[in-house]
Amino acid sequence: MTREDVVKDIKSEFFVLAPTGEEYKIDMENLKENLDRYEIFNKFPTLKKYIVAEELKNVSSAEPPSIKAMVHLELIDYEGASDSGNFRFYPKGNLIFDLLSDWAEEIALERLGAMKIETPIIYDWSMPDIREQGQSFHERHYMVKVPDDENKEFVLRFAGDFGLFRIMKQINMSYDQLPIRMYEFSKSFRYEKKGELSGLRRLRAFHMPDVHSFCRDIEQGWDEYENLYKSYNDLANATGIEYAVVFRIVKEFYDKYKERLINLLKYSDKPAFIEVLSAMKHYWAVKHEFQGIDSVDGNCQLSTVQLDVKDASTYGINFVDNDGKKKGCTICHSSIGSIERWMFEILENALKSEKPMLPLWLSPTQCRIIPVSKEFLNFSDEIMREIEKADIRIDIDDRNETLSAKIRKAEREWTPYIVVIGEKERESKKFSVRRREDNQNLNPGISELADEIKSKTKGMPFRKSNLSKYLSKRPIFVGYT
Fold first, then answer.
1. Range of the domain at 133
2. Per-residue DSSP letters for 396-456?
3. Same domain, residue pair 282 and 404
4. Would you say 367 and 394 are in contact if contact means Cβ atoms under 8 Å apart?
């Protein structure tokens, strides 16, 4: 019997599972006509947006506004000398990229206790295990020829599994060492169709923080699955994005572990769209995705976790159990999601607001000082140096421009805190501050301002700006001047 014969007999049922445990059966065949009749979708509009975009394929033709914003904000741009779907990152964009990467690595190494590895990006296409993994991506590969052998073909990796699985096949593992967690920040390549490319949502070169957990059995695998789910949920919440939760699960596992799924939804305080399969169609018994919702109500897959009960035997990834026998691991495949897609969703969610703003911990400039004239530059410099001691990214607009022009520039750059300094501020040591988040005017002292910013970024990664603190010394890369 072929795989096609097996798959064609597998049936799907669809539900919405609420955090309260209530289950709502969904008739997918007639959903388009009856969508508004389901009260559950009116109660949970984010899930409805996902259903419309992905399950009903009713995707907006509008260009996501982040495509223009990423350029105007001097974050990311197209590179005409490269292939489509390959981007250049300017200093501000590189800073955001690094902060998200730091957060992903902190989750993997500190919270999950994973071991970090690095593997090649290029592999011999003639190797049976490489070809078998590669064929699952339907020829969407970058193929590479070498100059000294015209018959030799290499493939650029589309995920970190190539090198990781070859490592895991050769190492010796004991049951009392499990779960073993491996982390790689893998630059990967997928030759997506040109018509499908769309800014940072879908590209051909991207960076994927992958965590794979190798477990003793399904029970330990479920424990690991839950841990990964919660970690990625916390990451999503820290970025402030709008997202839906989607599960695909084999019926046997759904019936057995439904209560554990409900507990995960309680942790997220979100419902989930669930496809229940009558039998196993893939290597996984259960998987979920966090599906980001952009500003034009499209969807974009971010983090995912898959409980794999087959690949260990396929690829010879074994451990020695307490009876001395070799057994195949249960594997949790997981990815936080490509850093580029997180940047896409963060920008898109910002653009849903009348006054867009990045999460404070990701803002390239968290606070900008604008002296009303050159007379106040030295005092502004003193204030900047005091505030930056608290690990706050702060700069000064010391350009020879009018006050209104400087304020407009700060607003166009989505600056969270704008501090205007003149004689009154120098005398009183209280500052005129515009807070973008709620458009409020404040009059804090130095320590009050620093404490507020620090309290809102507590627990998140920090990096210094990679640009000059003085705007007069910054080149204009692109966008607004």
1. 123-156
2. E--SSS-HHHHHHHHHHTT-SEEEEE-HHHHHHS--EEEETTTTEEE---HHHHHHHHHHH
3. no
4. yes
Domain total of the chain: 3
| Structure tokens that stand for 226 in this block | 């839950």
Nearest CA to 228 out of 213, 243, 241 is that of 213
- Same-domain status, 296 and 276: yes
Q: Which amino acid is at 22?
A: E
Rounded Cα distance between 461 and 95, Å, is 11
Cβ neighbours of 280 (radius 10 Å): 17
Q: How many C-beta neighbours within 10 Å does residue 116 have?
A: 11
Same domain, 228 and 338: yes
Of 306, 330, 350, the position where a domain reaches its end is: 350
Burial of 1: CB neighbours in 10 Å, binned 0-12, 13-18, 19+: exposed
Q: Which of 224, 225, 247, 243 is nearest to 235 (CA)?
A: 243
One digit per residue, the tens of pLDDT, for the chain of length 481 reads 455 655 677 889 999 999 999 999 998 888 888 888 888 888 899 999 999 999 998 877 788 899 999 999 999 999 999 989 899 999 999 999 999 999 999 999 999 999 999 999 999 888 887 887 776 655 688 888 889 888 899 989 888 788 999 999 999 999 999 999 999 999 999 888 888 888 888 899 999 999 999 999 999 999 999 999 999 999 899 888 999 999 999 999 999 999 999 999 999 999 999 999 988 888 889 999 999 999 999 999 999 999 998 878 778 899 999 999 999 999 999 999 999 999 999 999 999 999 999 999 999 999 999 999 999 999 999 999 999 999 999 999 999 999 999 999 999 999 999 999 999 999 999 999 999 999 999 999 999 999 999 999 999 999 999 999 999 999 999 855 4
Whether 338 and 206 have beta carbons less than 8 Å apart is answered as: yes
Residue 481 lies in a domain: no
CB 332 within 8 A of CB 324: no
Bridge partners of 318, per DSSP, are 328
Region at 368 (left for phi over 0; alpha for psi -120 to 50; beta for the rest): beta
374 and 268 belong to one structural domain: no
Last residue in a domain, options 322, 350, 378: 350
Whether 108 and 128 map to the same domain: the answer is no
**Whether the Cβ atoms of residue 299 and residue 50 lie closer than 8 Å to each other:** yes
| CATH number of the domain that residue 256 is part of | 3.30.930.10
Can you say whether the dihedral through the CA atoms of 304, 94, 89, 69 is positive or negative? positive
pTM: 0.92
DSSP string, 209-273: EEEEEEESSHHHHHHHHHHHHHHHHHHHHHHT--EEEEEEEEHHHHHHHHHHHHHHHHHHT--EE
Classify residue 3: in a domain, yes or no.
no
Residues 225 and 108 in one domain: yes
The closest of 375, 398, 396 to 387, measured between CA atoms, is 396
